[in-house]
Amino acid sequence: MAETLACKDVIYAFDKTHEPVKRVESGTTIEIETYDCFENQVQSADTKIGGIDWERINPATGPIYVEGAQPGDVLKVRIEKLEIGNQGVMATGPDLGVLGHRQEEMASKIIPVEGDHAVFDDKLKIPLNKMIGVIGVAPEGEPVPCGTPGAHGGNMDTTLIAEGATLYFPVFAEGALFALGDFHAAMGDGEIGVSGIEVPGKATVTLEVVKEGALRHPLLENGDGIAFLVSKPTLDEAAKAAVEEMADFLLTRTGLGAADLAMMLSAAGQSQISQIVDPLMTARFFVPKYVLDAYNVTLFE
Amino acid sequence: MAETLACKDVIYAFDKTHEPVKRVESGTTIEIETYDCFENQVQSADTKIGGIDWERINPATGPIYVEGAQPGDVLKVRIEKLEIGNQGVMATGPDLGVLGHRQEEMASKIIPVEGDHAVFDDKLKIPLNKMIGVIGVAPEGEPVPCGTPGAHGGNMDTTLIAEGATLYFPVFAEGALFALGDFHAAMGDGEIGVSGIEVPGKATVTLEVVKEGALRHPLLENGDGIAFLVSKPTLDEAAKAAVEEMADFLLTRTGLGAADLAMMLSAAGQSQISQIVDPLMTARFFVPKYVLDAYNVTLFE
Question: Gene3D superfamilies this protein is in (chains A, B) (predicted)?
Answer without folding.
Answer: 2.40.10.120, Acetamidase/Formamidase-like domains
